[in-house]
Amino acid sequence: MPDVDQGSKAERTLIFVLRLSLGWLFLWAAINHFGDSGYVAGFLSRTKTFHSVYGGLPRSAWLPVISFCVEYGHLLIGLSLISGLMVRASAPFAILLMLLYWTGHMDFPYIDNVNNLLIDEHVIIALALGLLIVRRAGHVWGLDGVVARLDRVRQSVGLRWLTA
Q1: 108 belongs to a structural domain
Q2: Is residue 3 part of a domain?
Q3: Whole-angstrom distance, CA of residue 123 vs CA of residue 85
């Protein structure tokens, strides 16, 4: 697969810095809340608009599984974005996570507080992650560009898709 034009050096630099910044955001969340299922339980128990969906989860048997998925999801997404490896695979999960957090913070029509009418940082981060997918951000000074050139990856449809 030929490389898609990644734009000017300024655009590549901006995409690279955006990818690293978003990666750090997820990695720090993983580090900061690692091993603390109370953080996840607290978040889920404070939901408002969608409390009927999220409110029962902190008291369910699913809480350890949810906490594990949140912790390791943040970790893997952060590492993927920082390294630029499998961005096409990790970014959709990050978008889903951001949209779940957005609904979790919602106190319709506000998000978290009256300064955020329908839109908050979670939606903006999800949009930025979408941009990283479209612009093939893993190919901008990332490992996707390196791995995509390997013969084994070129010969495998699945691996080609992951690094595209």
Answers
A1: yes
A2: no
A3: 23
Cis-peptide into 109, omega within 30 deg: yes
What is the extent of the structural domain holding 127?
9-163
Q: What is the dihedral of CA 93, 97, 98, 102, to 10 degrees?
A: 150
Paired sense of beta strands 106-107 and 110-111, if any:
antiparallel
Q: Check: CB of residue 75 under 8 Å from CB of residue 23.
A: no
Asked if the structure places residue 2 within a domain, the reply is no
Condensed to tens digits (0 to 9), the pLDDT of residues 4-57 reads 556 799 999 999 999 999 999 999 999 998 877 788 999 999 999 999 999 999
The pTM score is 0.90
Please write the tens of the pLDDT for every residue from 79-130.
999 999 999 999 999 999 999 999 998 999 998 888 899 999 999 999 999 9
- Count of the separate structural domains present in the chain: 1
